């Protein structure tokens, strides 16, 4: 049994039920059912875009990745094999991960491009919140690709370790190891910033 299939066995019954519903929508979309396609877009375009933003740090790039992911799905629906894929959700994220990695290798990321400006320098806590967001964004951007991918999926997208393992085609144990290393790295990177922020008060 492959690591992806092994990891899939850890996904709960609720996820399995959702996957069945997704597969029905894909089958309907393959026949030209626009309502089914619209439901799939409504369900996953936003989360995929959010995931890509955490990976790339640029809102425009993230939207492009999300759209390209659905373009890939359009070319897949006619030949979709419900038994051959773990779930539509993990397939979409797997495509998005690869697109994000490709883009990061081609361009220099701008991790702060889309963070909001501090609205008022005198607003209570506004500058500190902005600096915390900036520090976290920059720390995430410095993580190795696999660590950032796993951390974002589990902590920001609500994936179980098993679902993340299937999407990345690795074992659950590998996911747990990547998460542990990512947490240690973030703690080390953010500790100096944390001390600096606390020192302002």
Structure description:
The protein is built from nine helices and no strands. With 201 residues, the protein is mainly α. The chain has one domain: Up-down Bundle (Butyryl-CoA Dehydrogenase, subunit A, domain 3), CATH 1.20.140.160. The protein is globular, with a radius of gyration of 19 Å.
Overview in brief:
The protein is mainly alpha-helical. The chain has nine helices and no strands.
Strand content: under 5%
Counting DSSP E segments of at least 2 residues, the number of strands comes to: 0
Overall pLDDT level = 77
Query: Percent helix among the residues?
Result: over 70%
Topology:
Blueprint: H1 3-8, H2 13-30, H3 34-56, H4 59-74, H5 88-106, H6 126-142, H7 145-156, H8 161-168, H9 172-198
Helix pairs in contact: 2-3, 3-4, 3-5, 4-5, 5-8, 6-9, 7-9, 8-9
For the structure shown, list the relevant keywords.
single chain; mainly alpha; Butyryl-CoA Dehydrogenase, subunit A, domain 3; 9 helices; disordered C terminus
């Amino acid at each position: 049994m492959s690591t992806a299939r092994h990891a899939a066995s850890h996904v709960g019954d609720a996820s399995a039920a959702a996957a069945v519903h997704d597969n029905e929508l894909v089958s309907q979309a393959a026949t030209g059912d626009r309502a089914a396609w619209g439901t799939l877009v409504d369900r996953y375009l936003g989360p995929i875009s959010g995931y890509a933003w955490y990976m790339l740090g640029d809102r425009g790039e993230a939207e492009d990745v999300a759209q390209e992911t659905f373009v890939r799905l359009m070319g897949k629906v006619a030949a979709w094999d419900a038994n051959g894929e773990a779930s539509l959700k993990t397939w979409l994220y797997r495509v998005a991960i690869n697109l994000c990695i490709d883009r990061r290798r081609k361009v220099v990321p701008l991790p702060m491009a889309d963070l909001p400006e501090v609205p008022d320098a005198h607003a209570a806590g506004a500058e500190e919140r902005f600096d915390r967001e900036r520090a976290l964004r920059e720390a995430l951007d410095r993580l190795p690709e696999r660590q950032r991918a796993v951390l974002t999926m589990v902590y920001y997208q609500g994936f179980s370790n098993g679902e993340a393992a299937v999407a990345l085609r690795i074992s659950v144990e590998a996911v747990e190891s990547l998460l542990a290393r990512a947490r240690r790295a973030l703690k080390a990177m953010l500790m100096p910033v944390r001390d600096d922020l606390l020192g302002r008060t």
